[in-house]
Amino acid sequence: MQLHLPPMPSNYFDKQFLPTQGYHLGDDVKLISCDMKPDMVEQVVGSAREILSRRIVNEQILPRELKEELDEKFGHNWQVVVTSGQFWAWFTHLAGYCVVFKLQRYCF
Asked: Could you list the residue ranges forming a coiled coil in this record (predicted)?
């Protein structure tokens, strides 16, 4: 059964972003969901930004590269999902270790 839902307008989620006061993320970052401490969020976003700036990004290995870097910085068991379109997710995580954000054309 197909639902045939109309596409969401491009600004639909603008009202859904979290305020970023207290964070030093840059104007190009939109927080979607977060329960991490600001300094940790800044490190995660900084890692994603650094990976994106390295070279032409291979989207297939982008999540792996970020996961490896986060595992090294914070310990193992990071789950990294990267999308360049709409997504919906429902998942379990350790309290204090979840951030969902938009950077450039990607959602992490």
From this structure: none
